[in-house]
Design a protein that fits this description.
Structural class: mainly alpha
Helix content: 55-70%
Number of helices: 4
Distance between the termini: 92 Å
Length: 136
């Protein structure tokens, strides 16, 4: 069976040319603004479908769920003034949260209080002390 050759008007791809997805190709993933607009569009679409056809639960509920996930991602993405939400997390913290989440499915009476206690402990560490304590 003979090999098919490309049409003569299509130039061959060389190693020096940018590929799809690279920053030089003109294609980039959406930034924080794009994710926020997508979330807002999903919420607007869900509202529009709910107002026009409330019996189409599949469509408006699906758009609402996608909007919630995109909104959460929008909140977690970095901006010019702050780092990404996950930038300050280390491996131990991620491992502990993942372990508590898995434990919460099996034994919620242990996993949920452990996770809540950990969040409270992190909050206590972040709160600056008040100046009311007597100094020696």
């Amino acid at each position: 069976m003979p090999k098919a050759s490309p049409p003569p008007d299509v130039p061959p791809i060389s190693a020096d040319e940018p590929t799809a997805g690279s920053p030089d190709a003109g294609f980039a993933l959406p930034g924080r603004l794009g994710v926020g607009l997508c979330a807002g569009g999903c919420f607007a679409g869900a509202l529009a479908v709910y107002v026009v056809r409330p019996d189409e639960v599949f469509w408006w509920a699906g758009a609402m769920r996608v909007g919630i996930v995109m909104g959460a991602l929008w909140l977690a993405l970095p901006s010019r003034k702050r780092d990404a939400a996950w930038a300050a997390w280390d491996f131990k913290a991620v491992s502990f949260v993942a372990l508590c989440a898995l434990l919460s499915f099996r034994l919620p009476q242990i996993g949920v209080p452990l996770l809540a206690g950990w969040w409270f402990w992190r909050w206590l560490k972040a709160v600056p002390p008040t100046g009311d304590a007597p100094r020696d």
